[in-house]
Amino acid sequence: MPPRVKSRLLRNPESISSLVEEFVDAIARHGAAAEAGAYKTTNKQYKRYDKLRKRLEQKGEAGRHAIHALLEHSNPWVRLVAASIYLKYREAEATKVLEAVERDTGIVGFNAKMVLREWRAGRLHP
Prior knowledge:
- The chain is mostly helical.
- It is built from seven helices and no strands.
- It has one domain: Serine Threonine Protein Phosphatase 5, Tetratricopeptide repeat.
């Protein structure tokens, strides 16, 4: 971790960590609802995690670093969302994560496939 990011995290550790915790929770709930076909919950959790994404990105480099760390999360939905966001920062790295998630069966793999297709076609602007 770069020293500037580390010092910023140390000055405000609860802010970033609590945002990330909420962000991961919203994404996990979104994914579970999508798999269950519960579209109202899926939409509600999407709105929740999108607001949290914006708050994380407003944290600058520290927020981007927190999102970057989620590219290795155990939950494929979290990796999918983090990689979708991270396309605009490090396309090659995010693409590799999306390609790995794409190999998963089910809706998470399909979503990764659609993100990649739309990104490559220039229609996705995370």
